[in-house]
Amino acid sequence: MIRAHIRLTCGTLAAFAALGSFAPGSAAPAATPTLVEHRFETEFTIAAFQTAGLGSDGAEQLILVGERGEVTTWPANFAPNGAFAVKNPERCLLSPIPAAAPDTNGALAALTPDGLLLHPFDPDRGILPEAATALADTRLQLRIGAPRFSAILQDVNDDGRHDLLLPQQRSYELWLQQAPGQSPQYIKTAEVRTDVRIARETDADALTDRLENSFHIPSLHFQDVNGDGRADLLASTGDQRSFHIQTADGLIPPDPSVVLDLDIFRDTTPRSDLRPGQVLAGSDNATLAMQDLNGDEIPDYVIAHRRKLWVFHGSPDGPQFTQPSAIMKTAEDVTVVLITPLDDDPLPDLLLLRVQIPSIGMILKGLFSNLDIEISATGYANQQGSPSACPS
Predict the structure, then answer these.
(1) What's the pTM value of the predicted model, to 2 decimals?
(2) In what order do the strands lie in the sheet with 163-167?
(3) Contact 186, 87 (CB under 8 A)
(4) Residue 278 to residue 334: CA distance in whole angstroms
(5) 3-class SS string, 63-128
(6) pLDDT given for residue 292 in this prediction
(7) CB count, 10 Å around CB of 226?
(8) For 185-202, how does the pLDDT look when each residue is reduced to its tens digit (9 = 90+)?
(9) Which residue, 245, 248, 116, is CA-closest to 184?
């Protein structure tokens, strides 16, 4: 196992790799893993960095990008001054493309005003400056200020090929990849409106107003949410879920058909503190699970926050989050909420997991012997598409 620790300063990057391994079947070494420090200097100011398995061997590469567009990789052919510079660094979004097969190498995708460019990766030379234009019709018009890594490439339709999300001033375009290979083909499938956040800041020293705007590239995927056999578009941004239901003529509407704000689903029970001997409470953010609960082949929805759960059934009209089919509240904190089959019934059931934090005495005992972690589970059988009121 390799565990990497990265520390960044202005113009300086220190990477630490803790290397420790032993042969399968042999006893683990008693000594702690050796900590090896790799430190190198860059003469450019680092704007962004990311790791990705670009090589055919699956090894991770550290990609460094400077504020003026300098791009270099470590450890493959590391160049302190940058191997090359991307075009239009103030208008550039980057996304690494990992190697798709053992005998191929990945690439670095750059979305610029010149289109979508692909810089191939060479194991001996790193990321190459020679770029192929994958899509000239997609031009980034937003000013970023410096190159940034972003989720502009996503496999939206689960076909194993990366698709493109192009941010615009008030919307983002979805381009689906149609043919894999060195020269992928993209087709514009949808344009979905989104809000651009604008902030105003007054600088008293310069007697000016500073206006800043930011955009968020959502996570997208296709799924039929109303049982008509047509794939609908689901967008996730923070606590908001947007459902764009495909029309009968095959169009994805730019405005969402249904919007879910998870932030409005709150349990008023006070959040539990992290204390020894108590149940470890899960995330304080509301979570959403989508699964068919009543067997009508239409997704249903379970929203959980702290000790409270809401169940909403989908219909041919699509999802709705105004009339819950059931509301549950547990007496104890819950660590994890799972929707999974627990009996011979084909319908999924509700499973609540609770992890007990060891007491102070158990922690002290674990310093000299084994430390046991207690995990309890409570199951609720599915009754007519909703969890039963009593545990099974």
Answers:
(1) 0.73
(2) 153-154, 163-167, 171-179, 185-193
(3) no
(4) 11
(5) EEEECCCEEEEECCCCCCCCCEECCCHHHCEEEEECCCCCCCCCEEEEEECCEEEEEEEECCCEEC
(6) 95
(7) 20
(8) 889 999 888 765 555 555
(9) 116
